[in-house]
């Protein structure tokens, strides 16, 4: 229930319906939009929201739905029901085109069975009766004209007309040729008069030919004659055309009779097309306002995140401005929000946004708010916005407000949403304030939920001391003297009356006089509110800076953990290789010693032979002994480092490869990581001293780095595939330290560009996104800059 009835106009719901109607393809769809109402049945609301959301997914992510024709076949079906009445060729063409659309749509969803269950329910149990289409196709061609062979009689008549016209033409051409050679004709060629082909004759020669004169020129010098021989043939054509019309009526009557039993099914098909047009229009509007489907619950509450007024959003979009999003929650703990703050600070827009989005959800429309938003169902919505004074009803502004307050207090309950703008105004504030407070207390006692805006201090104080009622304020920058249009829950706001008056230019002596006329207590309250708001803003800005620093610390900590893990793994590889090498040396040495002893024994310990064998043993042992290479710092004067060289950090055992030299710094690749060190902190090592595993890993990463391009072309891709490709490119760019990406997505209707930017906004590593220069692609290319 809506009270008063003009609430839909006050909140802008009527304008929303008009915008949806503009997307309809048929008059039937527009009629359904006109019937949109705010519902309170949870199951219906949930079903309609899911239908709109599924159609939106089709428009954004899937192939186009084969909707080509929308005709009012309901009217045609009702006409066909009447005995003796027949449908015309054009009307049968409309039925034919509509049936083709219906069957194509059903086939589309059959191929995607289970993907769009709520849309599939629209034609569930609806039979596909292609016999109707076959009957019509046999009579009506794709251009909507009756086929020449629709019946044997029609075919013969059509053939007879063609022959008679051909004979008549041949005859008149011959007569015209003879008359021209005799000099009887006027300048020109054969012409049509009264639907008959005539010869232009000079007036003085009209007696030289037998025939019927249909017309003459303005000067009277030329007459237009149909020759006697041709006249008879043309009459035959005329008679055959009458016969053809009678035969067509006969055929169409027979076809209508065959169609008559199917009229209930045609009405069902009409209903399906109407609903599809209606849901399609809702989905297109949702795309226009970047709407999403919120979480819907069957209880009177709401929790909006990043909510925007759809009409304001569209207006700002034209002017290339952005709407400040609204975050607000109303539930059992916070039932009524009392919003205060400066004039033109956005209080009314904030309240209208809450009311309009609630109406839209309960009418089955998606809303411009985050998917995490939670919207419940209210049985009643009571609205008091604007001046409803009436001369005819003898109602003043305040009387009109009081009439509504009376209805609110009497009829509201725990499932009612109330929206009251400028609560208590219209009379002496000394009395209007207490009355408003009493009404608010009564509504709170009834567990009513909603939002009110006010400038009254007594209402702010009452809200701060009453359970279930919460103060809120629209933030204001009292340094630059401009509103921020951001709702802050938990504290009241100052009206900034003197500050705004000073900015407008009211004389200082008038302001001073006004200040002296208000009480000290009121001055203190207003000053306190201004100071609180300033401090709150400073705390908020400081918190943002701290959050940013904390994120950076977390990133560095994660990077250090990853580096530590890599170093541990690298250490294990080196130790394992050293152990394997030592084991091989010991085995080889043992074999050599054993062979030497065996040869000494076989030579019966001959001194010369023994001495030679010992020398050979010493030589082999020296060969197999691994001497560590002394690592010397690489001095710039002795040997300059260059990209590709292998280096080791002086204060650790970490080995990496030089990627880039920047003044006294060296950019080193260590596996997936990149680090920067001073030249004096690294020493150059030979490639052979680097373990094979590390070399292989680095070769793989180096080739990846060299081949990597921070550009991607997703034109022609489906949205899901495009986002997947961009995500992989984004991950690699972050890993390799790139600071920007270039995405070619094309212009089109802008949906792919919108979805890509919306998707990338969720990454905190993204600093900003910009269009390419207009001369080099404009908004068909997006540059993504990373932090």
TrEMBL record:
Source organism superkingdom: Bacteria
Any one biological process term the GO annotation gives: negative regulation of DNA recombination
Entry annotated with the keyword Translocase: no
Record-listed E.C. numbers: 3.1.-.-, 3.6.4.-
Domain Smr: 712-787
Binding residues annotated for ATP, in chain numbering: 341-348
GO molecular function: ATP binding; ATP hydrolysis activity; ATP-dependent DNA damage sensor activity; endonuclease activity; mismatched DNA binding; ribosomal large subunit binding; rRNA binding
Keywords: ATP-binding, Coiled coil, DNA-binding, Endonuclease, Hydrolase, Nuclease, Nucleotide-binding, RNA-binding, rRNA-binding
Pfam families: MutS_V (PF00488), Smr (PF01713)
Coiled-coil ranges per UniProt: 529-595
SUPFAM superfamilies: DNA repair protein MutS, domain III, P-loop containing nucleoside triphosphate hydrolases, SMR domain-like
Family, similarity comment: Belongs to the DNA mismatch repair MutS family. MutS2 subfamily.
Assembly mode: Homodimer. Binds to stalled ribosomes, contacting rRNA.
Function as written in the Swiss-Prot or TrEMBL entry: Acts as a ribosome collision sensor, splitting the ribosome into its 2 subunits. Detects stalled/collided 70S ribosomes which it binds and splits by an ATP-hydrolysis driven conformational change. Acts upstream of the ribosome quality control system (RQC), a ribosome-associated complex that mediates the extraction of incompletely synthesized nascent chains from stalled ribosomes and their subsequent degradation. Probably generates substrates for RQC.
Name of this protein: Endonuclease MutS2
Organism annotation: Mucilaginibacter pineti
Gene that specifies this protein: mutS2
């Amino acid at each position: 229930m809506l009270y008063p009835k003009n609430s839909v106009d006050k909140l802008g719901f009527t304008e929303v319906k008009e915008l949806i109607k503009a997307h309809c393809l048929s008059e039937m769809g527009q009629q359904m939009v006109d019937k949109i109402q705010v519902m309170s049945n949870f199951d219906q609301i949930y079903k309609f929201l899911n239908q709109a959301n599924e159609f939106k997914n089709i428009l954004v992510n899937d192939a186009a739905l084969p909707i080509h024709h929308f005709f009012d076949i309901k009217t045609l079906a009702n006409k066909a029901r009447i005995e003796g009445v027949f449908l015309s060729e054009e009307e049968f063409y409309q039925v034919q085109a509509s049936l083709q659309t219906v069957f194509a749509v059903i086939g589309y969803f059959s191929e995607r069975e289970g993907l769009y269950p709520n849309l599939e329910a629209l034609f569930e149990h609806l039979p596909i009766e292609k016999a109707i289409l076959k009957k019509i196709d046999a009579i009506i061609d794709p251009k909507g004209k009756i086929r020449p062979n629709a019946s044997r009689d029609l075919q013969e008549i059509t053939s007879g007309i063609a022959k008679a016209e051909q004979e008549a033409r041949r005859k008149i051409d011959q007569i015209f040729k003879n008359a021209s050679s005799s000099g009887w004709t006027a300048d020109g060629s054969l012409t049509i008069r009264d639907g008959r082909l005539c010869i232009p004759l000079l007036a003085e020669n009209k007696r030289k030919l037998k025939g019927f004169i249909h017309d003459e020129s303005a000067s009277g010098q030329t007459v237009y004659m149909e020759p006697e021989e041709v006249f008879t043939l043309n009459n035959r054509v005329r008679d055959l055309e009458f016969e053809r019309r009678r035969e067509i009526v006969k055929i169409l009557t027979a076809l209508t009779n065959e169609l008559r039993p199917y009229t209930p099914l045609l009405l069902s098909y009409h209903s399906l097309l109407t609903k599809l047009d209606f849901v399609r229009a809702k989905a297109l509007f949702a795309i226009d306002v970047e709407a999403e489907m919120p979480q819907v619950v069957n209880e009177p509450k709401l929790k909006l995140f990043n909510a925007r007024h759809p009409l304001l959003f569209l207006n700002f979009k034209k002017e290339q401005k952005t709407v400040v999003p609204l975050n607000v929650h109303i539930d059992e703990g916070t039932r009524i929000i009392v919003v205060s703050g400066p004039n033109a600070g956005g209080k009314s827009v904030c309240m209208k946004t809450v009311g309009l989005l609630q109406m839209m959800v309960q009418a089955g429309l998606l809303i411009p708010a985050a998917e995490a938003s939670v919207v419940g169902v209210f049985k009643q919505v009571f609205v008091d916005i604007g001046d409803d004074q009436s001369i005819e009803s003898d109602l003043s502004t305040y009387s009109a407000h009081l009439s509504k307050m009376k209805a609110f207090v009497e009829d509201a309950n725990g499932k009612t949403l109330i929206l009251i703008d400028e609560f208590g105004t219209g009379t002496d504030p000394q009395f209007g304030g207490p009355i408003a407070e009493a009404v608010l207390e009564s509504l709170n006692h009834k567990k009513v939920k909603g939002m009110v805006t006010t400038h009254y201090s007594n209402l702010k104080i009452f809200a701060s001391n009453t359970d279930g009622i919460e103060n809120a304020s629209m933030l204001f920058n009292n340094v630059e003297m401009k509103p921020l249009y951001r709702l802050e829950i938990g504290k009241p706001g100052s009206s900034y009356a003197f500050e705004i008056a000073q900015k407008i230019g009211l004389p200082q002596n008038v302001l001073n006089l006004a200040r002296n006329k208000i009480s000290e207590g009121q001055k203190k309250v207003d000053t306190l509110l201004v100071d609180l708001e300033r401090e709150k803003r400073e705390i908020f800005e400081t918190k943002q800076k701290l959050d940013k620093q904390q994120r950076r610390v977390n990133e560095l900590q994660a990077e250090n953990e990853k580096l530590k893990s890599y170093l541990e793994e690298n250490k294990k590889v080196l130790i394992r290789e050293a152990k394997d090498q030592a084991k091989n040396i010991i085995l080889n040495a043992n074999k050599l010693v054993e062979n030497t002893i065996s040869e000494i024994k076989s030579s019966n310990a001959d001194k010369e032979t023994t001495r030679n064998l010992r020398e050979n043993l010493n030589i082999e042992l020296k060969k197999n002994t691994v001497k560590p290479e002394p690592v010397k710092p690489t001095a710039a004067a002795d040997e300059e480092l260059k990209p590709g060289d292998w280096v080791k950090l002086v204060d650790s055992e970490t080995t990496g490869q030089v990627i880039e030299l920047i003044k006294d710094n060296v950019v080193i690749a260590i596996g997936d990581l990149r680090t920067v060190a001073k030249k004096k902190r690294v020493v150059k090592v030979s490639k052979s001293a680097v373990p094979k595993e590390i070399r292989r890993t680095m070769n793989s990463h180096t080739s990846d780095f060299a081949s990597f391009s921070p550009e991607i072309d997703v034109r022609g891709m489906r949205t899901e595939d495009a986002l997947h490709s961009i995500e992989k490119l984004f991950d690699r760019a972050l890993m390799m330290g790139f600071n920007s990406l270039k995405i070619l997505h094309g212009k089109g209707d802008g949906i792919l560009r919108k979805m890509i930017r919306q998707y990338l906004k969720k990454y905190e590593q993204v600093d900003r996104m910009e269009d390419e220069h207009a001369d080099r692609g404009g908004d068909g290319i997006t540059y993504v800059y990373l932090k």
